[in-house]
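Input protein
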Amino acid sequence: MHLDKNRSATSGNITSRLAKAALATALLFGVGSMALAQNMVVRSTGPSAGSYPAGKKMANDAKVTLKAQDQVTILTKSGTRVLKGPGTFSLAQGGGTASSASGRLASFINNRGSSRARTGAVRSAVSDAVEAPTNPSLWFLDMTKGGKFCVADPNALVLWRPDYTGSATASIVEPANGNVTEIAWRKGSALKAWPKDVLPVTNGASYRLLGSSVSQSVEVNFVVLESEPADLADAASVLIENGCEGQLDLLVETANANREAPDQG
């Protein structure tokens, strides 16, 4: 009887360990794979746009049916796919046409560059784009773009200018009282830390920006995020949710940088 009890206890311990192992495996491969399988619509135009609105999430085996003149951009874990109608597309197929530059995208999303903004040393970030410089970070505020701007870290906001070949200045105007704050870039410098000690970066704050090499001023409205996005999908979600269209455009353009032609039906 004592031996049977020991066997029963041993059997129970083994069963318990197996159950825990099975649960861990399910969490690692089941839930984890499910999260990675989600794809998100980030751009949609044409007759079927209402069926595929920005922010819509779809499983990896979902099918997308498009009409003539439809074009839908799908964000995947490795970049984007652009689907052009008419036709029916399976998200489980054609993944080879998507951008594979996931490392570059991660750097683009995680690069906040506040330390480099203090010195202005950004040549490596834009060295390959002399003719048409591209904003090297999703969180750098482009001096030439207006509208809502999502701020990931209000203590490390950075201003970026496309034309960094010469020295330049810019005026930041507070619409509420007309106060003007002047900032300056040295020749060859593209970044400048936002003067947060004078102009606080708060949710809903609005400023008008005018650079010395820009013909028109733009108005920027800050949306301070509650937390910093963890990955590509999280970043796209918060930009769509908060109406930060300029940054969403930049995200899509960056993800599309190494793509081939759109998938056509």
Notes: The radius of gyration is 24 Å. The mean pLDDT is 77.
